[in-house]
Task: inverse folding
């Protein structure tokens, strides 16, 4: 473990420095994501205000408010741009420099992103969680914070990030064959956002579709951590969902290694 940290910690420092060096880009991206979050909130507010039933699929407007903001936090902190970064490096040729380094290709990307996550957590995590808990206290008149649910949520969030990272690594390796992933990456993000429940809760889907999506890896990216935080899963459901997250993580790690083995033989540098 000490050797692993010593080898890859410079990449984490590079991630922190990158976030600090391009502050304007970081800030405007964050502002854009916050605007999207509030847009979703006002859309759901309009939906509930226009409905005669104030409880839909087990969600009240107060539940939906918590869902929107915790889903935003989960999506933001589990976000990985490995596919985009890898595609850009193949386009400009800098991927060749990574390939000759005596270290794991995916671990370099992982630790660099972890450096970025340090900044993201320090800015976003406490304010949003604190704001949500204050909102729940004001609405219900009682403290809703559950330390066990919070710890399980945090663990599930880390699993969600690692699943998302390795999923994007697998997808990014397609750039070795397709040469450019910019357009398809946009489509992928929209589809994943819908299937993960960050756009619409999976509970609102038809029963058959909801069951199918629950077993797919995308629910593990957003829906599972949020439902754990909101205490809407039973202990059995929590155990099953987190085991499913661990399973999908193992699958994507193995698939990434397999794709990398074949992708190295198809590298075609377009720039550099």
Result:
């Amino acid at each position: 473990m000490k050797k692993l940290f010593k080898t890859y910690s410079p990449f984490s420092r590079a991630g922190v420095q990158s976030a600090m060096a391009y502050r304007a880009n970081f800030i405007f991206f964050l502002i854009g994501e916050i605007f999207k979050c509030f847009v979703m909130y006002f859309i759901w507010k309009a939906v509930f205000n226009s409905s005669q039933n104030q409880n839909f699929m087990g969600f009240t407007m107060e539940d939906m408010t918590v869902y929107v903001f915790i889903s935003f936090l989960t999506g933001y902190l589990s976000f990985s741009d490995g596919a985009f970064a890898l595609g850009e490096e193949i386009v400009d040729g800098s991927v060749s420099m990574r390939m000759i380094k005596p270290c794991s290709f995916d671990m370099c990307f992982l630790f660099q992103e972890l450096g970025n996550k340090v900044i993201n957590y320090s800015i976003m995590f406490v304010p949003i969680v604190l704001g949500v808990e204050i909102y729940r206290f004001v609405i219900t008149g009682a403290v809703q914070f559950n330390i066990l649910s919070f710890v399980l949520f945090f663990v599930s969030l880390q699993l969600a990030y690692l699943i998302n990272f390795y999923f994007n690594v697998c997808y990014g390796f397609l750039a070795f064959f397709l040469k450019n992933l910019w357009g398809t990456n946009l489509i992928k993000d929209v589809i994943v956002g819908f299937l993960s429940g960050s756009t619409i809760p999976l509970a609102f889907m038809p029963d058959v579709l909801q069951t199918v999506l629950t077993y797919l890896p995308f629910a593990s990216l957003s829906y599972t951590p949020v439902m754990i935080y909101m205490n809407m899963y039973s202990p059995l459901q929590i155990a099953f969902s987190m085991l499913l997250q661990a399973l999908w993580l193992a699958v994507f790690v193995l698939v990434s290694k397999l794709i990398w083995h074949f992708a190295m033989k198809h590298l075609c540098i377009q720039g550099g």
